[in-house]
Amino acid sequence: MTLLEINDLTVNFYTEDGVVTAVDDLSYRIESGETFGVVGESGAGKSVTALSLMRLIEDPGRIESGEILFKGEDLLEMSEAEIRSVRGNEIAMIFQDAQTALNPVYSVGEQISEAIRHHLNYSDAEARDRTIQLLDRVGIPDAESRYDDYPHEFSGGMQQRAVIAMALSCDPDLLIADEPTTALDVTTEAKILDQIQDLADEFDTAVQLITHDLGVVAKICERVMVMYAGRPVEKAPVEDLYYDPKHPYTVGLMSSIPRIGDERDRLQTIPGTMPDLVDVPPGCAFHPRCPYAEESCAQKQPPLVDPETGDAATAADDRAAACLEYTGDLEGELEFEVSVEGEDPLLEEGQDAR
Amino acid sequence: MSTERGRIRVTGFDTDRVTERDDLSDWSEATTGGTESRWRRALRRFRHNRVAMLGVYVVAAMALLSFFARPVTIAGITVQPFSIAPYDPSTILYLEPGSTVGRYDPPTLAHPMGTDASGRDLFSRVLVGGRLSISIGFVVVGITATFGLAYGAVAGYYGGWVDEILMRFVDVIFAFPGLVLALVIVALLGGGYWPLVIAFSVPGWAGYARLIRGEILSVKENEYVLAAQALGARDRSVIFRHIVPNAMAPLIVQASLSIGTVVIGVAALGFLGLGFEPGTPEWGTMLDQTRETLIQGPGGSIPWWATVFPGGAIFLFVMAMNMIGDGVNDALDAQEVGNVGQGGGG
Amino acid sequence: MSLRRFIAKRVLLIFPILFGVSVITFALVHITPGDPVDVVVALNPDISPAEEARLRARYGLNDPIWEQYLDWLVGVLQGDFGKVIATDRAVSTVIVERLPETIALGLFGWVFAVIIAVPAGIYAAVRKDELGDHVSRFLALSGISIPNFWLGLMLILVGALTLNLWPVLAPRTALYSPEMLWYLLLPGITIGTASASTLMRIMRSSMAEEMNKEYVTAARAKGLPERTVVLKHVLRNSLISVTTVAAFLTASIVSGSVVVEQVFGWPGLGRALISAVSNREIDLILGITLFIGVAIILANLVADILYAVLDPRIRYD
């Protein structure tokens, strides 16, 4: 069943330097219980997408157009009271930096139980019990006595666990995890990711995982969307994305993941940086960094199409890419190749946490 | 070229092509003015702040009006010959031959702000009245900011017991409300221009010292300062070349907001009859006289103009000065200091 | 360090500061020419030089300055703050007599400031850059720019002389009667306006700063109503920085009382200080400034403690 369907979402920010289109004509869907990955460098519009889903875009930002269908209802049409009953209750969010997402002057327990009291109408004592169970479930030792601790008394990893407990507090149907492990060290990162995956299974919660790390995506996601400069450039089931990437940017991201045992002297990174959204390159936004770019790439913005047929893609399509190659406008060819050696690498990677 | 990814192998993604080819469009990565210096950007933002610019115009106009109101003579030489004010501020007009002017005449065309208790032209007095308060405001802030900067820099840079002793003294100064200390000093020294400058400078510097010390403590740990020390730069040069420029922004904000406070303080002492000789054309001193009229207006009528105009002039000037201060604060992106300073007023 | 030790340490720090305050005031009063006997003599020309010398000797005005200071300090430690020479009354009696008047006025100003500033600051921060914000910011800017003595005169001009709602000078019936609140209104507003404006500006800017923090987005993402987000999460954080100005506000109200009491003929400590200063009543000047110093230091102490209580991150060091 389709839990969330986003159609043609556009979000603008009206800044001093001009109008910035942070999310441009974005469409995708998330099925119940699945884990959906959103990948891109910082500034690609991933976090803005996440906040849009909860209608938490603030001035000077504005959701310009599109629809966000959650269980068939458009969140953008809802009243303020209706959307509030969705936030934290049916859609919950795990923030990137737990330290700043927790209010420093209230105890961790209070910050979790206030949502429970608000949405589920629990009494103080019931909310406290449920909070302690949740803290215990996300792996905070001695949860009962840590309930009254303040955020600064928690370590970074524990703060992130508390934020996860907060997000799960009302048993949401959709969990938005915005770079949930970026602020953590590598060992903690692996544990937290495992935990999100376990909990999502246990609570039967769909997850939209936002990350800049393709390795993380490979580990826990089922379908992936790659974003660049506010636009989706490729959508694919995770196996297809790895074995058969369609967009040069995806390929660039894949070739820039560092690995132990790498024999090269230098990491193969994509030249240049993501453009400032105030001043996006004309045509395909990726063209200044793309090895296969031609004249036409600087002129025509490639639509998101089915790479097999060249037909315009919709939210329902699982496989789509935005490159002139697939509309027949590219003279040359995308000369990259992905070869697979040995057994199924994904399966193996999924088993040993890196 | 090939790259190895576990068992996935990407070939043909040749990034050298990007760096070698010509640009395909006019677009380039170096976007709008990221290199503009902090001060230049602050200046541009200040210029675009209409409220702050209005403040600048009002302050400039009032300062110029008071300067050109009557001629200025230094040691017998007239350095400023202009005279905008229609009458001499201390001439008692009804004593002039053939005069029809009386005490407390209401505003007329000839006397747009009326006359005061001694039949002097209030408009001329209000124009000239800015000289003392405004210039004391600027002089005091200049002195206190400079001294406070040096004091706070020494305390913050050396730290330890030097800091401890210096800051305990600042605590002592902070235990006096600025106006109370100024009041005691002026009462003991007698009024006048320089006694007032001293009276407001004595409590005024402590706020800057505390501010600068705090800034320096936070700047001190920066790597470029540690680097300068490691390279053997002398203390003084480290303080003044590296630390002070970074601590300037909050100092400037504080200074621009303090001028108004000092102006109000000077006028307050004038109002209490302690700042200047009675009859001096100074805004606060003019109001001192008028308080009596409010308690018992002469013949039942109240000369409201004698209260409204001199006080209104102080209000207008201080308001404009604070608009500038807020503008400077916004332009420099400093924290709102909310006029938490010493130096009287309030 | 525990909260109790933190408070104990702060209390101990008061004494060196008070010592500094008394030394500075004492030095200021004594290095300048003229003493109270001069004033008494000026008022009573028939005092003989011998009698003048006797007066000086009686009040110890001929002793070296450090000896006079020590005498005074020993007296203070025994609760004797000296005498008002012109009236031969104890300084402590004068202070105790005038104090309630000033406290009533200051308290009224304080309450007025808080009642106006806290809601106005919250409102302006929530409605940032909207019309209501602009209006309240303009009023606050006016409030910090208006000289309090002129505001007082204008209120008298309008409220007492034009509308005839108040007498120009409040009748000195009883301070503790309920109608005194009515007479306190004009001087109270006069003394509280600058504080209200300062507090409102700080409230607004600290609220606005807190509103941009991620925990606010996180609180909204929990689905809490905006009221709860602002009045529970944001307010508590911004109050932490607001407490730091509470002490400043006390100082501002004390300064204000000197001027405002003069405007409204209010017989408090501020007026006593002005007359003490003009009559060179050394002991009275010292007594009142020391008293003001204690009040401000205590306000600082309360602010520090409040800060520590409100912010769980404080480690008292």
Automatic annotation (TrEMBL), chain A:
One of its GO terms (molecular function) is ATP hydrolysis activity. It comes from the Archaea. The keyword Membrane applies. It is found in: Cell membrane. Its main location: membrane. Keywords: ATP-binding, Cell inner membrane, Cell membrane, Membrane, Nucleotide-binding, Translocase, Transport. It is a peripheral membrane protein. GO terms for cellular component: plasma membrane. Pfam families: ABC_tran (PF00005), oligo_HPY (PF08352). GO terms for biological process: peptide transport. InterPro entries: AAA+_ATPase (IPR003593), ABC_Ni/Peptide_Import (IPR050388), ABC_transporter-like_ATP-bd (IPR003439), ABC_transporter-like_CS (IPR017871), Oligopep_ABC_C (IPR013563), P-loop_NTPase (IPR027417). The keyword NAD does not apply. Residues 4-254 form the ABC transporter domain. PANTHER family: ATPASE AAA-TYPE CORE DOMAIN-CONTAINING PROTEIN, OLIGOPEPTIDE TRANSPORT ATP-BINDING PROTEIN APPD. This is ABC transporter ATP-binding protein.
UniProtKB/TrEMBL annotation, chain B:
It is a multi-pass membrane protein. Its main location: membrane. Signal peptide: none annotated. Keywords: Cell membrane, Membrane, Transmembrane, Transmembrane helix, Transport. InterPro entries: BP-dependent_transpt_permease, MetI-like, MetI-like_sf, OppC_N. It is found in: Cell membrane. The chain crosses the membrane at residues 51-69, 132-158, 165-187, 251-276, 302-320. SUPFAM superfamilies: MetI-like. PROSITE patterns: ABC_TM1. Gene3D superfamilies: MetI-like. Belongs to the binding-protein-dependent transport system permease family. This is ABC transporter permease. It comes from Haloarcula rubra. The lineage of its organism: Archaea, Methanobacteriati, Methanobacteriota, Stenosarchaea group, Halobacteria.
TrEMBL record, chain C:
Gene3D superfamilies: MetI-like. It is a multi-pass membrane protein. The keyword Zinc-finger does not apply. GO terms for biological process: transmembrane transport. Residues 99-307 form the ABC transmembrane type-1 domain. The chain crosses the membrane at residues 12-31, 103-126, 138-161, 181-203, 239-264, 284-310. It is found in: Cell membrane. Keywords: Cell membrane, Membrane, Transmembrane, Transmembrane helix, Transport. InterPro entries: BPD_transp_1_N (IPR045621), MetI-like (IPR000515), MetI-like_sf (IPR035906). It comes from the Archaea. GO terms for cellular component: plasma membrane. Pfam families: BPD_transp_1, BPD_transp_1_N. Belongs to the binding-protein-dependent transport system permease family. This is ABC transporter permease.
